[in-house]
Write a sequence for this structure.
C-alpha cells in the first residue's frame, strides 16, 4: 500500500524513501539514457541494408554498447536497495528496461514522467533471437534446450549407420570442416546427412566451415626411419598382447591379416619360412631379438614378438634351420616417421617462411648442436612479427617471445614448454596474439571452396574473422554465387576478432540468417586462458543484445576416455553452454556417447539457466568502438562517456557529486529542458 508523504516522497512497508537519493538516481539514469540515444543516432542511420527487424536489433545493440561503457555496479546496488529491478538481464531490451526503471522511480519521487519515457511492457525474453536461431540452426523445443552441432569425422562420408546414430541421437546441425578432406568427401557427407535425416523424419542443417588463414607449422624434415614395436603387458609384466608384424614382398601394399604394421622383405626369402619357425635379428639398439612365424598366407607372413624391438633399414632378418644355411634379408618399406622438433625452455627457435623444419638434435651424438628451425604457413604471417611479441604453438602447449625479427626469419626464445621439452610436428597450430595480422579471412582456397559450399550447405562458417571487411567480403561472394540466402556463422577465434565483434555484428545483421561461434580453442590462446571465461561471457551478452544466435564450441565433452565418465569440469562446462543457442561437439572417438551425455545434461539444466546476475562493470574491450577508420557503422564513443574529471576541491551540486558517471554536458542539457532535478 502506497500513500503520499510530506515532501513528495513515498512510503512502502512503513519506511519512507529518500527523495534526494531518488532524484540523484533518476539523474544518473537520464544521463545513461541520453548517452544511449546519442550513440544510436550516430550508428543506426548508417546501416542502410537492414530490414525493419534488423534495424530494431541494431538499435538495441547500440543501446547496450553505450550502457556497458559505464560502470553500473553502484547504480544496480542502489536500485536493488529500493526494491526495483537492478538492470539485470537487460540485453534483449535495453532502452525499455531503463525506461521501466525510470518510470517507477518517477512515481516513487512523485515527479511527473517525461512524455518520452513510457511504461514499456518488456517483450518476451529471447523472442527475436530465438526466431533468428530457428532460421539459422533449425527448430527446437523447450524440453530439448539448445541445439547440438556435431563435427563429422571422415566415416560420415561412407557409413550410413554411423550417420543415423548421430541423427537419431539428437544432432541438429552437421558441421563439415573444409580444412579436412576433399570437396568430394564434403559433398558425400552432406548428401548422406540429408538422406538419413529425411528417412528419420528430422530436419538437420548442414554447416560447411571454411578453413580460413589458420597459421600452422610447415613441413619438417623426416627423421631417422625407425619402427618401434612394443608388446602390451599387465601389472605383473606378463605379455598380454604380443607385437604382430606383417612381412610382405618389397614394394607390395597388400595387408597381412592380423598385422598392426607391415615391412617389406626380399620375395625369394619370404618363400622359405614355415609356421613356428624362428627369425632372429639385432635391432637398432644392438639388442638380440626373436620373432616367431604365426601364419602364412598369400599376402605374406604374420610374425610375433614378445619383447620391445626397434627396426631400421639397416636391420637384417636371419632364418636358420638345423642342417640348412642361414638365410638373410634386409628390410624395406618401413613406415615413414613424421619429423618432429624438440624444444626446451630457454632455447632459441628460428621461424622461417619457406623450407623444411629441422630439429636441433644430432641423432648419433644425441647432442643439441644448433637452433631448431620451423617453417610457418602462410609465410607472409611472419612479416608482421615484432620484437617482444608472443608466439604460441600447438594450442598453447609451447610458447615463446620474439627476440629478433628480420627478412631472413624470426628468432624466438622458448619460454613455455614441458619440463623435459616438448615436440612439435607439421600441421600444429601457431597463434600470434600480440601481432596485428592483415590476412583476409577468405583465402584463395576458401573462395574456390565457396562454389561447393553454396550448392551443398545451409550455412557457411567464416573462420578467423578479424573485422567488418571480412563479413562484407563473404556476403559479396555469396551474392556473386547467387547464394545470398545462405546462413552465415562468424567465428570469433582471435583477439582482434573479439575486439571487432560489435562492428561484425552490425554487418552480419544484413544477412537473412546469421550467428556467431565462440571458437574457444584458438580464442583461449589469443586472449589468454585466464581471460577465456570473461571473454566468452561478454560475447554472449553482446550477441543477446544484437538478438543474434550463438554457437558454444571447442572441446565440449572432448577428453572422455574409453570406458570412463567425463570429468566434472567437462560436465559443468557443458551446462554453462546452455546460455548459447547451440553447443558443438567434436569428439571423434566417442561422439555418439558425448551426444547422449550432452542431451541428458541439457535436459536437466533446462529449468536452471536464467538465474545469472552479472555485476555489470564497464566493458573495456569495446570502449574504443568507432575510433578505427574501417568501421563506418561504429562512430566515436558518446561525448558523455569522455567527460573530464572535475578538479579537486571544486564545489559541485549534490546530484553531480553523487553521480559516479560524471556526464555534466548531458546533465546541463537535461536541466535546460527542465528534465533534471
Amino acid at each position: 500500500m502506497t500513500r503520499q508523504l510530506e515532501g513528495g516522497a513515498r512510503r512502502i512497508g512503513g519506511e519512507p524513501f529518500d527523495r534526494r537519493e531518488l532524484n540523484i538516481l533518476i539523474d544518473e539514469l537520464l544521463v545513461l539514457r541520453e548517452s544511449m540515444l546519442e550513440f544510436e543516432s550516430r550508428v543506426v542511420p548508417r546501416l542502410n541494408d537492414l530490414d525493419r527487424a534488423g534495424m530494431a536489433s541494431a538499435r538495441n545493440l547500440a543501446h547496450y554498447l553505450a550502457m556497458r561503457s559505464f560502470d553500473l555496479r553502484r547504480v544496480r546496488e542502489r536500485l536493488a536497495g529500493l526494491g526495483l529491478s537492478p538492470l539485470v538481464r537487460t540485453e534483449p531490451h535495453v532502452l525499455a528496461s531503463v525506461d521501466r526503471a525510470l518510470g517507477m522511480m518517477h512515481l516513487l519521487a512523485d515527479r511527473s514522467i517525461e512524455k518520452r519515457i513510457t511504461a514499456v511492457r518488456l517483450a518476451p525474453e529471447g523472442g527475436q533471437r530465438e526466431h533468428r536461431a530457428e532460421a539459422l540452426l533449425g527448430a527446437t523445443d523447450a524440453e530439448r534446450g539448445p541445439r547440438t552441432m556435431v563435427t563429422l569425422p571422415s566415416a560420415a562420408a561412407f557409413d550410413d549407420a554411423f550417420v543415423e546414430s548421430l541423427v537419431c541421437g539428437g544432432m541438429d546441425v552437421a558441421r563439415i570442416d573444409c580444412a579436412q578432406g576433399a570437396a568430394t568427401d564434403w559433398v558425400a557427407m552432406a548428401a548422406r546427412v540429408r538422406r538419413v535425416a529425411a528417412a528419420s523424419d528430422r530436419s538437420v542443417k548442414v554447416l560447411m566451415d571454411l578453413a580460413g588463414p589458420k597459421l600452422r607449422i610447415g613441413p619438417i624434415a623426416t627423421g631417422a626411419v625407425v619402427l618401434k614395436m612394443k608388446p602390451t603387458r599387465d601389472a605383473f609384466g606378463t605379455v598380454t598382447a604380443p607385437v604382430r608384424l606383417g612381412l610382405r614382398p618389397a614394394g607390395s601394399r597388400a595387408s597381412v591379416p592380423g598385422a598392426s604394421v607391415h615391412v617389406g622383405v626380399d620375395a625369394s626369402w619370404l618363400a622359405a619360412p614355415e609356421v613356428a619357425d624362428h627369425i632372429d635379428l639385432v635391432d637398432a639398439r644392438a639388442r638380440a631379438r626373436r620373432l616367431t612365424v604365426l601364419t602364412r598366407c598369400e599376402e605374406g607372413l604374420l610374425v610375433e614378438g614378445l619383447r620391445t624391438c626397434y627396426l631400421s633399414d639397416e636391420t637384417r632378418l636371419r632364418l636358420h634351420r638345423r642342417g640348412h644355411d642361414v638365410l638373410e634379408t634386409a628390410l624395406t618399406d618401413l613406415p615413414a616417421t613424421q619429423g618432429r622438433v624438440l624444444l626446451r625452455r630457454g632455447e632459441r627457435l628460428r621461424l622461417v617462411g619457406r623450407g623444411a623444419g629441422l630439429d636441433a638434435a644430432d641423432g648419433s651424438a644425441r647432442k643439441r648442436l644448433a637452433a631448431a628451425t620451423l617453417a610457418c604457413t602462410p609465410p607472409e604471417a611472419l612479416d608482421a612479427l615484432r620484437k617482444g611479441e608472443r608466439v604460441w604453438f600447438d594450442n598453447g602447449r609451447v610458447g615463446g617471445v620474439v627476440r629478433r625479427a628480420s627478412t631472413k626469419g624470426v628468432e624466438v626464445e622458448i619460454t613455455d614448454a614441458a619440463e623435459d621439452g616438448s615436440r612439435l610436428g607439421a600441421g600444429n597450430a601457431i597463434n600470434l596474439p600480440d601481432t596485428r595480422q592483415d590476412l583476409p579471412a577468405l583465402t584463395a582456397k576458401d573462395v574456390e571452396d565457396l562454389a561447393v559450399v553454396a550448392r551443398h550447405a545451409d550455412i557457411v562458417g567464416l573462420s578467423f574473422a578479424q573485422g567488418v571487411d571480412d563479413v562484407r567480403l563473404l556476403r559479396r561472394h555469396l551474392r556473386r554465387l547467387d547464394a545470398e540466402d545462405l546462413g552465415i556463422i562468424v567465428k570469433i577465434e582471435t583477439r582482434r576478432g573479439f575486439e571487432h565483434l560489435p562492428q561484425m555484428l552490425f554487418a552480419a545483421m544484413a544477412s537473412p540468417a546469421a550467428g556467431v561461434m565462440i571458437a574457444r580453442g584458438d580464442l583461449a590462446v589469443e586472449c589468454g586462458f585466464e581471460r577465456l571465461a570473461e571473454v566468452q561471457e561478454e560475447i554472449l551478452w553482446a550477441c543477446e543484445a544484437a538478438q543474434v544466435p550463438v554457437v558454444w564450441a571447442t572441446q565440449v565433452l572432448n577428453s572422455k576416455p574409453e570406458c570412463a565418465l567425463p570429468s566434472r569440469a567437462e560436465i559443468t562446462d557443458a551446462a554453462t553452454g546452455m546460455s548459447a543457442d547451440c553447443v558443438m561437439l567434436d569428439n571423434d572417438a566417442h561422439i555418439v556417447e558425448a551426444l547422449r551425455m550432452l542431451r541428458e545434461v541439457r535436459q536437466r539444466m533446462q529449468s536452471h539457466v536464467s538465474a545469472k546476475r552479472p555485476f555489470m562493470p564497464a566493458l573495456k574491450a569495446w570502449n574504443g568502438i568507432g575510433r578505427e577508420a574501417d568501421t563506418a557503422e561504429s562512430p566515436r564513443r558518446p561525448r558523455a562517456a569522455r567527460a573530464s574529471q572535475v578538479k579537486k576541491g571544486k564545489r559541485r551540486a549534490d546530484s553531480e557529486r553523487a553521480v559516479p558517471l560524471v556526464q555534466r554536458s548531458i546533465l546541463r542539457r537535461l536541466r535546460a529542458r527542465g528534465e533534471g532535478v
Summary: The CA atoms of residues 347 and 565 lie 39 Å apart. Confidence is low (pLDDT under 50) at residues 1-15, 626-662. Residues 3-125+613-672 form one domain. The first strand starts at residue 3 and ends at 4.
